[in-house]
Fold Zinc transport system permease protein.
Amino acid sequence: MLEMLSIDFMQRALLAALLVGTVAPMVGIFLVQRRLALIGDGMGHVALAGVAIGLVTNQAPVLAALVLAVAAAVLIELLRARGRTNGDVALAVIFYGGIAAGVVIISKAPDGTPANLMKYLFGSILTTQRSDLVVFAVLAAVIAVTTWLLRPRLFAVANDEEYARAVGLPVLPLNIVLAVLTATTVVVAMRVVGLLLISALMIVPNAAGQLVARSFSSGLRWAVAFGLVSAVGGVALSYPLNTPSGGTIVLLAVALFVVTSVVTGLTSRLGGHRHPVAERHDHEHGDTCGHPAVAHGDHVDYVHDGHRHAAHESHYDEHGHHGHHGADEPEQTTTGARP
Ligand SMILES: [Zn+2]
Ligand SMILES: [Zn+2]
Ligand SMILES: [Zn+2]
Ligand SMILES: [Zn+2]
């Protein structure tokens, strides 16, 4: 296994996997939150048309894919902002138009063989060039920094658009930024994961992360960890197994998800119920937040979205009809069911 580290293209492939495994789940967490899990898939369709144009015109396919995917991303958000019903149909038209144009155009490329198409669709470790890697590294750094800096705002918008608008966040620009980040991630990932499977690497590690994490930030850390293991492990395995890197990466991510759900299922059965944490809670309650405060034993609950929330360490608990828990009770995933 270790000999692969001395192979030039494997070094590049592993480095690319490192980049992709980090940024794909970072962007994906907001897509999961916005319930747009499959939008990366659609962006992949559009990017394919860009790849095809790049191959036919002998321009850089990566650049062409980037330009087209980003343009489609902006267009989609503008259409979505104008109304939901037409927006969904417009999405489908753009995505199907993208893949159809990609397939037709690529058939006219000088080396437009099915194999050539396959490596963009399913990923191929052999195709990462040194010059591509530099571009990918720069793009990945931009994605990671932008996502990290805008994290609270993207979270607020993805979580509750109405609320974000009410507190004066620029909802449309933030949605456009997220769409552009998604499009860029798709292009960065296309050589390693492939355009058809990149959506999976944005979503599946987040699904696994949400099983173990109790808060948004720990969910993000877990998702990146799962993404890194899947991407680097998948590339490493695809070499001796002689399989497409994209499929291997995604199968590994799915396997991690399955193992995680079995393990978390077992620990919660052995250790009793977790106490009810307020899910996806981005709002900080306090005297001036405007939510009605209700005294509840030794602490204060806030009435929020029809629930009662109580501050508990770094998160908020649901304190509905299920009674009260003491403030000095240790927070453990293994504490027993509350009275
Ligand atoms: Zn509040
Ligand atoms: Zn709340
Ligand atoms: Zn708690
Ligand atoms: Zn309470």
Residues 322-339 have pLDDT under 50 and may be disordered. The pocket of zinc ion (ligand 1) is lined by residues 283, 285, 289, 291, 302, 304 (CB under 6 Å).
